Amino acid sequence: MTGSPAGSSSSSASSGVGIRAETVSVIFRKTAATVLDDAKLSSRQIADQLGHARPSITQDVYMGRTTVSRDNAVALESMWLDLAQENSGGKPGVDLDRDDQSSL
Predict the structure, then answer these.
(1) Rounded distance, CA 63 to CA 16, Å?
(2) Mean pLDDT of 7-13
(3) Mean pLDDT of the chain
(4) Nearest to 32 by CA among 58, 66, 68
(5) Region Disordered: start and end of each range (predicted)?
(6) pLDDT in tens, 19-45
(7) Which residue has the higher pLDDT, 34 or 87?
(8) Helix (H, G, I), strand (E, B), or coil: what is residue 8?
(9) By the 8 A CB rule, do 55 and 43 touch?
(10) Could you give phi then psi for residue 6, rounded to 5 degrees?
(11) 21-38 helix and 43-50 helix, angle to the nearest 10 degrees
């Protein structure tokens, strides 16, 4: 069959829509990894399902980064609040984003 990978035929999932069978396979693997990751399976369990010898391959290629921990956001935000407090001379209510308009 012309245009098919060696030793394979067009899959029913990809026939007629112009998607190669290899692409369908990659999409399916990525989707499966995402579903398993969302189900809170370990990277080892997902790697086993995908046939990877090393979970690091699964993590690097198939598993997405999740949102950053709220603790990280709180720590970084407090850094900016601490800096603002230092720069205001310790005066509460000083708005560092507004220009001093008292001289107008």
Answers:
(1) 30
(2) 46
(3) 73
(4) 58
(5) 85-104
(6) 788 888 888 999 999 999 989 999 999
(7) 34
(8) coil
(9) yes
(10) -55, 130
(11) 150
d(CA 41, CA 33): 9
* 85: number of Cβ within 10 Å: 14
> Domain residue spans in the chain?
21-66
The structure tokens listed for 103 are 């001289």
HSE toward the beta carbon, residue 33, CA cutoff 13 A: 23
- Distance between CA atoms of residues 103 and 100, nearest Å: 7
The two structure tokens encoding residue 26:
């990659």
Distances from the Cα of 22 to the Cα of 29, 34, 56, angstroms:
11, 18, 22
CB proximity list for 32: less than 8 A, separation 6 or greater: 49, 50
Taking residue 37's Cβ as centre, other Cβ atoms within 10 Å add up to 19
